[in-house]
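Fill in residues.
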């Protein structure tokens, strides 16, 4: 398979919010319909309902990781630590690449410079999804 980063970018240009672009680009790999992925991630655009909190692309990564790793067995929590272990390096790498996890800081709404625009965050999150959550999807230039 090939990288889906361009697919995610295209979705962003076609009216999907930042979270929906990432979620809907990979939901089929988790047996989730595009419509359910769209609905599930709708409230996370603009840093959760445009509150400019955690970037919507990051929340999509967290949701995808849970969908991929969770055993869905309430009470046992067997997979929670594995899921957290999958998410933490993605968050760290996203923050290192972009300077923040917060939409307000990324967009320069806190008085600082614009660190990254939404289109670039979409591409970065998609690349992280492929690196950490779906590593067999695309092997990059090393193949």
């Amino acid at each position: 398979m090939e990288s889906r980063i361009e697919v995610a970018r295209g979705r962003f240009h076609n009216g999907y919010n930042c979270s929906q672009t990432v979620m809907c680009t990979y939901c089929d790999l988790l047996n989730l319909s595009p419509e359910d992925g769209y609905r599930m991630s709708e409230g996370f655009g603009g840093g959760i309902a445009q509150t400019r909190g955690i970037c919507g692309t990051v929340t999509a990564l967290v949701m995808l990781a849970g969908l991929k790793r969770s055993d869905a067995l309430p009470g046992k929590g067997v997979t929670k630590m594995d899921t957290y272990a999958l998410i933490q390096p993605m968050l760290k790498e996203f923050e290192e690449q972009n300077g923040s996890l917060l939409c307000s800081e990324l967009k320069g709404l806190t008085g600082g410079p614009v660190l990254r625009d939404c289109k670039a965050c979409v591409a970065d999150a998609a690349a992280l999804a492929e690196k950490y959550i779906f590593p067999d999807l695309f092997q990059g230039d090393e193949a």
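The chain has a mean pLDDT of 92.
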